[in-house]
Design brief:
The protein is mostly helical. 81% of the residues lie in helices and 0% in strands. It is built from 14 helices and no strands. The model has no long low-confidence stretch (mean pLDDT 80).
């Protein structure tokens, strides 16, 4: 069976998914390149975290506006806009090293943040358009596969970033990624024509804020969930591994990549690990998994504080955290698509991922600030507290 022989909606969705996967590789690589390159230049953890500030802030804005935009003009157009913006963001970093000031890199990261969330919103929303109403088990499976494969590829991107930085340097890596993404963007401009996900009515901008109590609660839980991950994972962990373990770029990039790849694979397998049909009728189960997850960072913090097998506990605990976090994230991703309104689905999905981006923003900034002043143990304790809040918030979805 060829791509042309498939139904139009499915063919367009597959192109959107392929675009999303390719974009994800460059996004993961770019994040690792920025963290490692600027740490090597002598930036402290808080300064590195600030480089991602606009990335996360504009992710919040993009999800809020992008969902409305996708419902009005179609997901194909929001996808292509995102690809184009990422190319510009990469090319902005192909400049002499003395140009790479914090404000300049923050501006490039802002464009990258807009691009990433336009792509994510387009891909996630497209699933609702092609899965028939009532097929909740199938919906769970499709969302899990998309989300898990994306995160696995993001992990490959982390590894790719470390490799490219070692082999080609920062500027060379930017050129290679921009050229690859340009080819994908040109293909998408030609082949991605269907107005997938376009609402039957023209939604007003005021409709970007969800009126659903369940979606509002799920969105709040998502904020705490991702703040809990990024408060120690984004800046604190790679810098800690580099300084305390004396790992080079290959080791840090490789380890982070392995973690995210494994995390993505578990996400994809979650519908098979759980009774996926039961989660269609028992969304409160997401709270239970959040409470399970809250135990892990606190246990790692205690081990590091008491210096009881700290290296083994950190690495092993991080791997276990990835498994349980992946299950949490997979259930979350399914629930938002399931609960979203079929007409103009990107409005609800965009609002939800706005909360996701807000959680990443809070976690990223705190990851640099808390680690700089109080260390990794404090980041882990804060992570556990965020997860307790995530579980409590999602109890009444």
């Amino acid at each position: 069976m060829t791509l042309r022989s498939l139904p139009q909606d499915i063919r367009q969705y597959l192109i959107v998914t392929g675009n999303y996967w390719t974009f994800t590789l460059t996004d993961g690589a770019l994040r690792m390149l920025v963290v490692l390159h600027f740490h090597k230049l002598g930036y402290n953890p808080l300064e590195i975290a600030m480089l991602f500030l606009f990335y996360e802030i504009f992710g919040v804005i993009t999800n809020l506006v992008g969902g409305w935009l996708g419902a009005r003009i179609g997901l194909n157009r929001t996808m292509n806009i995102g690809l184009g913006l990422q190319i510009i963001a990469l090319l902005m970093l192909v400049v002499p090293a003395n140009w790479l000031s914090i404000p300049y890199v923050m501006a490039a990261q802002a464009l990258s943040g807009v691009a990433k969330d336009l792509n994510k919103m387009s891909a996630k929303s497209a699933i609702k358009a092609i899965v028939k109403s009532g097929q909740e088990g199938t919906l769970f499976k499709w969302v899990a596969i998309l989300t898990g494969s994306k995160n696995a590829l993001k992990g490959v991107g982390f590894f790719l970033g470390g490799v490219l930085l070692t082999l080609l340097g920062f500027t060379g890596a930017m050129w290679v990624m921009a050229a690859a993404l340009m080819a994908v963007w040109l293909f998408s401009m030609v082949c991605l024509k269907s107005e997938l996900g376009k609402s039957k009515h023209k939604p007003k901008f005021t409709e970007v804020f969800s009126k659903s109590r369940a979606i509002n609660r799920l969105s709040a839980a998502r904020l705490f969930l991702f703040a809990a991950r990024d408060v120690w994972f984004v800046v604190a962990l790679p810098v800690y591994l580099s300084k305390q373990f004396a790992w080079d770029h290959w080791w840090v990039g490789g380890f982070m990549a392995t973690w995210v790849i494994g995390y993505g694979l578990v996400q994809s397998l979650t519908p098979n690990l759980l009774n996926r049909d039961s989660y269609a009728h028992n969304p409160q189960a997401v709270a239970i998994w959040a409470f399970y997850l809250a135990i892990l960072p606190m246990a790692i913090a205690v081990s590091l504080y008491t210096e009881h097998w700290p290296n083994i506990t950190l690495v092993g605990g991080l791997l276990l955290f990835g498994v349980v976090f992946a299950i949490n994230s997979s259930i979350h991703s399914y629930l938002i698509v399931s609960l979203a309104d079929s007409d103009g689905v990107s409005l609800d999905v965009g609002f939800y991922y706005m909360a996701n981006a807000m959680g990443r923003l809070i976690g990223t900034v705190l990851s640099g600030w808390v680690f700089l002043h109080y260390g990794l143990v404090a980041c882990l304790v804060l992570s556990s507290l965020f997860l307790i809040l995530a579980g409590y918030t999602s109890k009444r979805i």
